[in-house]
Amino acid sequence: MPYFFIDYYYIILVIPAMLLAVWAQYKVKSTYNKFSKIENSRRITGAYAAQSILTFYGITDVRIEQTSGKLTDHYDPKSKVIRLSDGVYNSTSIAAVGIACHEAGHAAQHAEDYKPIKIRNSLIPVCNIGSSLGIPLAIAGYFFGFEPLITIGLLLYSAIALFQVVTLPVEFNASKRAINVIGERGLLSEDEVPSAKKVLSAAAMTYVASMIVALANLLRLVLRFRRND
User: Fold this and answer.
1) Active-site option among 39, 65, 103, 190
2) Is 103 in the active site?
3) Domain range holding 51?
């Protein structure tokens, strides 16, 4: 089984996907760095912008807090807290407004029981199992020649790819909500909105790249363990 030790599928499928992921990370950081240095004309902070989104959707039970780190912004649905990083919370940059509104968009999704986010959250327990047991079970089934074990391992691992696929509409929708409210409430001027879109589009590419990496890994495993040699 020489192919088992020289993973040509990894070279052909996964490495190009990982290079795309590296490029996406570079793109989001460079775009953020560029527009985090440009103040918005309204001089509003990221925290104010996030609150504006919450007010627009009539959400009154979500807090906005500052958290340490760079690009560590996220919405915690369990605690109902939007956590904005140091460079976003008090910043008046165009990037800060875009990112803060995006995270508030996730709060709006939860408030409205947005179906894709419910589906994504339901996959998390399976993903945790699949990431730890999927490949080991498939390898064990391969060596012992037990097909059902291979199938179980691959199915568990496929939940990771499915999670990444479902994540895309969730992230795109949060950005769409953010841009729509930014425009309606005039949080940014008309000529600043395209810059905010660039920040959110760059961030979205990281999720696209993650999905491609997950699908490439899944295809690689299916091809390897289902080969009849």
Assistant:
1) 103
2) yes
3) 2-225
pLDDT single digits (tens) 154-175: 999 999 999 999 999 999 999 9
pLDDT in tens, 70-104: 999 999 999 999 999 999 999 999 999 999 999 99
Provide the Cα torsion 53, 104, 186, 175; round to 10°: -130
What percent of the chain clears pLDDT 70, i.e. is strictly above it?
Answer: 96
Given a contact cutoff of 8 angstroms between Cβ atoms, the answer to whether 38 and 93 are in contact is yes
* DSSP labels, 28-80: HHHHHHHHTTSB-TT---HHHHHHHHHHHTT--S-EEEEESSSS--EEETTTT
Please give the Cα distance from 142 to 6 (Å, whole number).
Answer: 16
Count: domains in the chain: 1
Q: Whole-model pTM?
A: 0.88
Distances (CA, A) of 12 to 4, 149, 219: 14, 26, 11
Q: Which helix (H) or strand (E) holds 82?
A: strand 81-85
Put the strands of the sheet holding 74-76 in their side by side order. Answer: 63-67, 81-85, 74-76
